[in-house]
């Protein structure tokens, strides 16, 4: 029931569906940039030790801290931006089916990242260099979260999302096994392959963003 | 359901909802979103700005000056009311289907 001058129920719901259609286009492009940035970050993470190997010990720690810090901060900020936009989109999508909406998106986001970074420090602290093997297993938590978010963004998982989550999971498992055995070159190879897959996902997402249809049939004014 | 007079238009509500998701959008993107003409979109944006729901700014980019719209706290409050209205409609529909 609407009073005079208010938009009707059909009009309110049309706006949300039109917003979601458009957001699919915006988000697909944003995920494309996300994949490309993370592909570059994977290469930077595995490439920095090779790049900095010639530095004197006195400066090496500073160069590592700066290098990993800048890369982590950049991808972290971008990730936060896209994850929160995806979270807000998810909320709008689920407002049409209110009982399925679970609150606390921000809390889950923070929890995943605390697990993500804390596990890195703790596993190396307790188990030395090979403790990183445990860290790679923990990366699977992030992969599951990414899978959930990608699937929720578009209603179903796209090809680029599928390639990204499978390659990431496989990369994490392969790295974990290689790190446990001390085969560090294989860890590098696993992440170079993952970066290549994410680059493919990026190109696919950017070139297959759904076409935005202009206008709409329910543009009404009740002034 | 929505007590804000500026939102008695699907075009303006569409702009507000999209801005609430993205926080900031350029004029060209808003043209794509609404499918309106430039003059019509400008008029809608002006009305939303007058109501305090968004803020228009001119920014300088490599490609030249661009107009961008940022959602305001009042705009976010109005969006929350819109989400609340959608949730109520969804619940009512569900109850109707159950009866």
What does this structure look like?
The complex is a heterodimer of chains A (223) and B (99). Chain A has helices at 9-51, 57-95, 105-127, 132-154, 159-180, 184-207. Chain A is mainly α. Chain A has one domain (9-207). In chain A, helix 1 (9-51) runs antiparallel to helix 6 and helix 3 runs antiparallel to helix 4 (132-154). Chain A is elongated. Chain B has one domain (7-98): Arc Repressor Mutant, subunit A (Orthogonal Bundle). Chain B has four helices and three strands; from the N terminus they run H-E-H-H-E-E-H. Chain B has helices at 10-22, 27-34, 38-50, 73-98; strands spanning 24-26, 54-61, 64-71. The model of chain B has no long low-confidence stretch (mean pLDDT 89). Chain A binds chain B through residues 2, 5-7, 9, 11-16, 18-19, 22-23, 26, 85, 88-89, 91-92, 95-99, 101, 212-216, 218-223, and chain B through 1-2, 5, 7-11, 13-14, 17-18, 20-23, 29, 32-36, 82-83, 85-87, 89-91, 94.
């Amino acid at each position: 029931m609407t009073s005079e001058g208010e938009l009707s129920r059909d009009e309110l719901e049309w706006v949300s569906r039109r917003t979601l259609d458009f957001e699919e286009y915006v988000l697909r492009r944003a995920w494309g940039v996300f994949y490309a940035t993370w592909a570059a970050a994977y290469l930077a993470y595995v490439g920095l030790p090779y790049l900095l190997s010639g530095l004197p010990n006195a400066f090496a720690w500073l160069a590592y801290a700066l290098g990993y810090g800048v890369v982590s901060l950049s991808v972290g900020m971008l990730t936060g931006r896209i994850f929160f936009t995806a979270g807000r989109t998810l909320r709008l999508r689920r407002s049409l089916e209110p009982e399925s909406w679970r609150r606390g998106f921000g809390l889950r986001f923070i929890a995943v990242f605390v697990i993500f970074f804390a596990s890195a420090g703790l596993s190396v602290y307790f188990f030395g260099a090979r403790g990183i093997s445990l860290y790679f297993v923990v990366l699977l938590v992030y992969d599951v979260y990414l899978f959930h978010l990608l699937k929720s963004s578009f209603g179903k998982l796209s090809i680029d999302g599928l390639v990204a989550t499978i390659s990431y999971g496989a990369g994490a498992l392969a790295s974990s096994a290689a790190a446990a055995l001390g085969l560090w070159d294989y860890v590098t190879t696993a992440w170079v392959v993952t970066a290549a897959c994410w680059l493919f996902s990026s190109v696919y997402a950017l070139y297959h963003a759904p076409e935005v249809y202009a206008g709409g049939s329910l543009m009404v004014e009740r002034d | 359901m929505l007590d804000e007079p500026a939102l008695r238009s699907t075009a303006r509500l569409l702009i507000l909802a999209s801005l609430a998701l993205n926080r900031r959008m350029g004029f060209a993107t808003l043209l794509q979103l609404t499918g309106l003409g430039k003059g019509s979109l400008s008029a809608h944006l002006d009305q939303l700005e007058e109501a305090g729901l968004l803020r228009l700014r001119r920014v300088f980019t490599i490609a030249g000056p661009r107009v961008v719209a940022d959602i305001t706290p009042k705009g976010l409050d109005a969006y929350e009311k819109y989400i609340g209205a959608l949730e109520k409609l969804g619940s009512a529909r569900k109850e109707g289907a159950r009866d």
